Description:
The protein is α+β, with helices and mostly antiparallel strands.
Amino acid sequence: LEIVPDKTDLVLVHDGVRPLVTPELIELCVARASDVGAAMAAVPVTDTLKAEDNGRVKYTVDRRGLWQAQTPQVAETALLKKAFARAAAEGFQGTDEASLLERIGVEVSIVPGSERNIKVTRVEDLQLAGAIYSDMHGGGKAMGVFRVGHGFDAHRLVEGRPLVLGGEVIPFDLGLLGHSDADVLVHALCDAILGAAGLGDIGRHFPDKDPAYKDVSSILLLGEVAEKITDQGFRLVNADITVIAQRPKLAPYFPAMLDNLGKALEVDRSCLNLKATTTEQLGFTGRGEGMGAHAVVSLVGTLQEPLTDR
């Protein structure tokens, strides 16, 4: 405040921990302060207030006429500098600028604030702020909006091929047939991610007729898929993948698979879940002719452009 030039008309003070303030509220506070000298955002107290002593209710506070102070708080520069100088000279420490202005006789006008203009103080406030932010920037835009995608893939089991699942080579007498390494788990995951982002499927981006992808590691393709959704303004929230296979037992290899998937997607493995199931010897998987996989993912978008523009 000391370095603000005296010729400056108004000073606006705002809490950095109130990130959801709107331009409209700021403009209203500025307009009111321009008219009367000082103004602040506030909301009326709606909860019943209790005075406490030693952990017990002492009495109920009459909430009529009580408001919860917010920011921005706006004042004419000369008034605010005078208020701070008086407080410093008298050793007074207020909890906000309005309390300093009150002490020098300045009437601070109240501008109705917003319950969304929350002060992020506790951990749970971050969760609430995230929900409010998503709602404020939703309305058909990708910013803060969840997208869910589902992927399915299946490959035939044949002799003479390694069995690759989740980027791990699994000891087995058969392997999956495909143009790449035929990693059915990763292919289902790629399709789910691409689908959630509205980017088609794995075949669109990595055609099985392209020699560049002959025997390629599907984990590498997953890394490219991750880059594609990042470019579109999305990030992975979580993924749940189920492999359908009569044999072999896959659970012992899940930790290594999760490491591979997490590195490719650049997410913590806690965001990923792997399951394996049989079909009780029913169908092509039950007969050991092939394997299948389902994947469900959720993404959150951070773009500001409408999705329809893409």
